[in-house]
């Protein structure tokens, strides 16, 4: 499932990231890697960007980036 | 036992005091630690050629020996994505000619967010310099239920680890003790470069040593960096790679691309694996204590309803404090400048030199100083928003709207600040990583109606709708129309520039939302004074210069003896320029007398009002525009037509919405973009737009029978 489709308040594990371009090299460097646990905290009032929590901190990304990140929801 | 030289710090430490670089992620409390270490012994400047603040301070060891500390911009990684991060990377790698490579490195990490913070540390350990690791915010980590075993971390990394709470100064003495040590061990952290990329790293390392003159250790660190630093952001002052090394890199990248190898991902992964192994040993995460205070604040602050109300409240508080708190110091400064001018007038004999000093230098610089209280308050507010963490939330909420014109949420606060004054707004664009986005924001910031336009708007509204019978809402409505026009213009031009001149990929919004923290008022105040000082020092000369030129234009050539100010102005170069300008501005409904006002108010918009006072020979009464308003309404063209018709007043207001009439802004844009190209372009496009829109409005108005 796409990260952008993950419901608010659920946890997931990253399955697959797109091949690196400069943008998602930075995402990886921020600790978002295949196998990383994350939870979707909220969506901004206007519907974009989204806020995720990973490795104990909060990060925002736009839905256009989240569209390319595949995750497996976990309970 | 004496350690062999290659695993103790370099021998220079015996002969001179080591230079420390202070590095860390954004929001890790690095500035607070820097202030705690160095107190007020700091020098703030700029790295030549880039608008990145260069901060150097002096700390004192236990024995009173001075230790130089270079505070490098906050970075998430050495693979730079902004000019700030590029400076950090280049200084650490010794790529900048203007800054010597630091001998030792102080790495600050946020103890509440150890894993991600250690990523940068992991890259820095590769540099082969002695590193001291500072675990900041230990109190917050403990409060969150995490226990960090310092001795284990020290054993894993083999470098000194100091626990610290920079906010209240705890641990700073321990840190100074560690910094005073003559010898520091090099990291023993063993980390294997993943097999898939190891040959490339070895080859790049060899090439960097042979062709770029790097020492083997630095060459290895740079080789690793090159693999993740693909769009290798180059800033002025950094040395480029040799052609041979760049070619080697390109060959490997082509090969990996062909094989489908995700080389950067492999490298980042293996670093995080090493970090994960360390973290598992060192950190015992306690029970998860449920939603933190930050989470609860965010539930309100980013709420679909309360979020907007909070944002509105913060904006309202900002503008209310600017207009109320600034009033008293502004009057105070105004009074003192007038008094100083009078004193000079009394002390010197009448003549050109006296007028140059009073009407040129003092009036010109005074005109800028008057806005200093507003500028300071804005800087203070921006600092407060940054240090509490609210700035990131405002960007989060506004991102969607800003993305419509191709910008991201980070442009919001700079543009908002520009409603009070474009100068702090433009200086606040430094938080925008992407160079083009930052330029676009700077280019459109002056379109936000600033407070210097108010006197012009008010005078024109008074002339347009004189008398008390006019309902107040129509005056307010006119005012709002001007603000709206400027705002719409700003967004329209931002869109235009993002799609033409400064075309770039849509900006990303990879942004950390740091936990809310109580602001360190001392740090915020210090930053406010630093920024104000930079503005005064750098902009001061340009402002003084242009003020003197403008004075000269109004003072020469001399009118015959016995003429009054009005006749002098008409006779002067500015007066003649007004006449010369008339053909260009006549289609806008302006005559040469208004032309003089347009010229003199190039220094600052509010000067228009005082110039009109001189042009129409009205004794200026400070708080009462009635005599001036009446003089304006009585003014006529030579053929007897009224000059200030409602349509002309309206057109004039529109002119001031768009035209770039502010020397200080020009000076700041020049400084922030490092060239005259952008401020000149800005003057051209803004004043050109002003002219076009005015001609459209005036001629349409005429055709419709107004005026």
N-to-C CA distance of chain B: 95 Å
Do you know the CATH architecture of chain A? Roll
CATH topology of chain A: SH3 type barrels
Fourth-tier CATH superfamily name of chain A: Ferrous iron transport protein A (FeoA)
How confident overall, as mean pLDDT of chain A? 90
Helicity range of the residues of chain B? 55-70%
What is the CATH domain class of chain A? Mainly Beta
Uncertain segments of chain A are: none
In the CATH hierarchy, what is the superfamily of the domain at 5-180 in chain B?
Answer: P-loop containing nucleotide triphosphate hydrolases
> What is the CA-atom radius of gyration of chain A, in angstroms?
11 Å
- CATH C-level class of the domain at 5-180 in chain B is Alpha Beta
Oligomer: heterodimer
Short description:
The complex is a heterodimer of chains A (75) and B (707). With 75 residues, chain A is an alpha+beta fold.
Secondary structure topology:
The complex is a heterodimer of chains A (75) and B (707).
Chain A (H helix, E strand, L loop, with lengths): L10 E6 L5 H8 L7 E7 L6 E5 L2 E5 L1 H4 L3 E5 L1
Antiparallel strand pairs in A: 1-2, 1-5, 2-3, 3-4
Chain B lengths: L11 H4 L3 E6 L5 H9 L3 E5 L6 E8 L5 E6 L11 H10 L11 E7 L3 H12 L5 E6 L1 H6 L2 E3 L1 H8 L3 E3 L8 H9 L17 H14 L4 H13 L14 H17 L3 H20 E3 L7 H9 L4 H20 L1 H21 L4 H18 L2 H17 L1 H14 L8 H6 L4 H6 L7 H10 L9 H11 L7 H28 L11 E2 L8 H35 L9 H7 L1 H13 L6 H9 L6 H9 L10 H9 L11 H13 L4 H11 L3 H27 L4
Parallel strand pairs in B: 1-4, 1-5, 5-6, 6-8
Antiparallel strand pairs in B: 2-3, 3-4, 7-9
Helix pairs in contact in B: 4-11, 6-11, 8-9, 8-10, 13-16, 14-15, 15-23, 16-23, 20-22, 21-22, 21-28, 21-29, 22-29, 23-30, 25-26, 26-27, 29-31, 30-31
């Amino acid at each position: 499932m796409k990260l952008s489709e993950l419901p608010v308040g659920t946890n997931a594990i990253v399955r697959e990231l797109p091949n690196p371009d400069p943008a998602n090299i930075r995402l990886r460097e921020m600790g978002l890697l295949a196998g990383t646990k994350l939870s979707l905290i909220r969506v901004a009032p206007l519907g974009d960007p989204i806020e995720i929590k990973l490795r104990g901190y909060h990060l925002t990304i736009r839905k256009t980036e989240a569209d390319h990140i595949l995750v497996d929801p976990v309970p | 036992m004496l350690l062999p030289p290659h695993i103790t710090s370099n021998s220079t430490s015996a002969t001179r005091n080591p230079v420390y670089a202070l590095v860390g992620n954004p929001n890790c409390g690095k500035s607070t630690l820097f202030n705690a270490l160095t107190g007020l012994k700091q020098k703030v400047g700029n790295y030549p050629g880039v608008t990145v603040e260069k901060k150097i301070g002096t700390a004192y060891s236990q024995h009173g020996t001075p230790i130089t500390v270079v505070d490098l911009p906050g970075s998430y990684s050495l693979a730079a994505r902004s000019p700030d991060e590029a400076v950090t990377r280049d200084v650490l790698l010794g790529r900048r000619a203007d800054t010597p490579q630091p001998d030792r490195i102080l790495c600050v990490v946020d103890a509440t967010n150890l894993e991600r913070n250690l990523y940068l540390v992991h890259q820095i350990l590769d540099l082969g310099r002695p590193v001291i690791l500072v675990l900041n915010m230990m109190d917050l980590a403990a409060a969150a239920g995490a226990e960090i075993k310092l001795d284990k971390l020290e054993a894993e990394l083999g470098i000194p680890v100091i626990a610290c709470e920079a906010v209240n100064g705890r641990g700073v003495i321990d840190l100074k003790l560690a910094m005073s040590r003559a010898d520091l061990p090099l990291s023993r952290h063993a980390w294997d470069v993943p097999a898939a990329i190891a040959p490339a790293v070895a080859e790049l390392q060899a090439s960097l040593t042979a062709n770029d003159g790097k020492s083997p250790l630095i060459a290895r660190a740079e080789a690793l960096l090159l693999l993740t630093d693909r769009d290798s952001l180059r800033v002025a002052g950094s040395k480029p790679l040799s052609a041979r090394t760049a070619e080697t890199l390109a060959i490997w990248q082509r090969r990996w691309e062909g094989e489908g190898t995700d080389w950067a991902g492999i490298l980042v992964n293996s670093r995080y694996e090493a970090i994960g192994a360390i973290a598992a040993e060192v950190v015992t995460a306690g029970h998860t204590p449920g939603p933190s205070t930050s989470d609860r604040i965010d539930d309100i602050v980013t709420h679909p309803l309360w979020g907007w109300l909070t944002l509105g409240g913060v904006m309202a508080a900002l503008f209310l404090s600017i207009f109320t708190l600034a009033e008293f110091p502004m009057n105070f400064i105004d009074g003192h400048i007038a008094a100083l001018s009078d004193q000079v007038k009394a002390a010197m004999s009448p003549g050109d030199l006296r007028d140059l000093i009073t009407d040129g230098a003092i009036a010109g610089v005074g005109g800028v100083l008057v806005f200093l209280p507003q500028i300071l308050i804005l800087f203070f507010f921006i600092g407060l928003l940054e240090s509490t963490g609210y700035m990131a939330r405002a960007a989060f909420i506004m991102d969607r709207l800003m993305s419509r014109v191709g910008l991201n949420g980070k442009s919001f606060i700079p543009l908002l600040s520009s409603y009070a004054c474009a100068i702090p707004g433009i200086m606040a664009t430094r938080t925008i990583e992407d160079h083009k986005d930052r330029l676009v924001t700077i280019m459109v910031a002056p379109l936000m109606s600033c407070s210097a336009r108010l006197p012009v708007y008010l005078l024109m509204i008074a002339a347009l709708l004189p008398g008390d019978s006019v309902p107040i809402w129509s005056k307010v409505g006119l005012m709002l129309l001007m603000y709206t026009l400027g705002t719409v213009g700003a967004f329209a031009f931002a869109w235009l520039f993002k799609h033409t001149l400064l075309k770039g990929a849509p900006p990303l919004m990879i942004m950390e939302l740091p936990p809310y923290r109580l602001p360190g008022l001392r740090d915020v105040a210090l930053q406010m004074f630093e920024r104000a000082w930079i503005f005064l020092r750098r902009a001061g000369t340009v402002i003084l210069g242009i003020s003197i030129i403008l004075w000269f234009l109004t003072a020469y050539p001399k009118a015959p003896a016995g003429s009054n100010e009005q006749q002098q102005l008409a006779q002067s170069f500015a007066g003649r320029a007004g006449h010369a300008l008339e053909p260009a501005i006549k289609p806008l409904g302006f005559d040469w007398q208004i032309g003089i006002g347009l010229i003199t108010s190039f220094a600052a918009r509010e000067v228009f009002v005082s110039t009109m006072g001189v042009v129409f020979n009205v004794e200026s009464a400070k708080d009462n525009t009635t005599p001036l308003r009446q003089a304006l309404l009585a003014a006529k063209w030579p053929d007897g037509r009224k000059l200030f018709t409602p349509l002309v007043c309206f057109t004039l207001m529109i002119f001031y919405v768009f035209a770039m009439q502010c020397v200080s802004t020009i000076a700041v844009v020049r400084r922030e973009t490092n060239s005259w190209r952008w401020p000149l372009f800005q003057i051209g496009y803004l004043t050109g737009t002003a002219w076009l829109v005015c001609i459209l409005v005036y001629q349409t108005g005429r055709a419709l029978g107004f005026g």
